[in-house]
Design a protein that fits this description.
Blueprint: E1 3-7, H1 12-27, E2 36-40, H2 45-48, E3 58-61, E4 64-68, H3 75-92
Parallel strand pairs: 1-2
Antiparallel strand pairs: 1-3, 3-4
Helix pairs in contact: 1-3
Length: about 90
Amino acid sequence: MELKFFYRPGCPYCRQAEELLTELFAERPEFKTIPLRRVNENAEAALAEQYDYWYVPTFFLGDEKLYEADARDGEKAVREKLTRVLETALERK
């Protein structure tokens, strides 16, 4: 199942998510096997409008939202949440 990563160019939280994904992929190469589709919310507005979320980055596995950004989360919390997203996606792959 495809994991969709909704983001906006220039978003600092999205940039942080990208950096954390790069780190997690390096630490756990099995995560690289997850089909990941990056969805630029601006360029693919019609697709983004089909999903229920307010903030980016947001990750959906199929139609299930696994993560939506929360500005109150620090880097450690975001890393833990993204790890869970990737573990869930790997289990359901």
